[in-house]
Design goal:
This protein has 157 residues and is an alpha+beta fold. It is built from six helices and five strands. The protein has a domain of 103 residues: Ribosomal Protein S5, domain 2 (2-Layer Sandwich). It is 39% helix and 18% strand.
């Protein structure tokens, strides 16, 4: 603190340090895989990605068997297509809870997060596409609790 201010003019000359953007680093395990957890409604997916031929396995089954509806398979592929990485990564995931639509959304969320861990430069593309946002839907018991808390906060007159 050897630099002390003697006047207000000196204070105006000080420039605040601009905050730097956070640096994201590649996060992979010993086998060279990136891991992420995706969530949607009541479904939770654990997702691992690694460089490969584009094979997607869900709960030890092929994606075409587990998600029979083409819309759900398209939904899972969206982050890979948006990042122009379709067919470049093998995806292995386990998913539980919720229905098929919620599970597909959880897998999509997990793939998006795992892609950002494997290639941090893809974060901007995936964030613009809305793939990194966890679903804001809450279940009925949480909604009832929130409304009960809100009622307690209301002023009484």
């Amino acid at each position: 603190m050897s630099d002390t201010m003697q006047s207000l003019d000196q204070l105006s000359q000080l420039k605040p340090a601009a905050p730097e953007a956070p640096k994201y680093v590649k996060k992979v395990d010993k086998q060279g895989r990136a891991y992420a957890t995706g969530k949607r409604k009541d479904a939770v997916a654990r997702v691992w990605i690694k460089p490969g031929a584009g094979k997607i396995t869900v709960n030890t089954r092929e994606v075409e068997i587990y998600f029979a509806r083409p819309v759900l398979r398209m939904m899972i592929q969206q982050p890979l297509v948006a990042a122009a990485r379709a067919g470049q990564y093998d995806v292995i995931c386990t998913v539980a809870g919720g229905g098929l639509s919620g599970q597909a959304g959880a897998v999509r969320h997990g793939i998006s997060k795992a892609l950002t861990y494997f290639e941090p430069d893809l974060r901007g593309v995936l964030k613009k596409g809305g793939f990194l946002t966890q679903c804001g839907i809450i279940n009925s018991s949480e909604r009832a609790l929130a409304s009960a808390l809100f009622v307690d906060d209301l002023p009484t007159s």
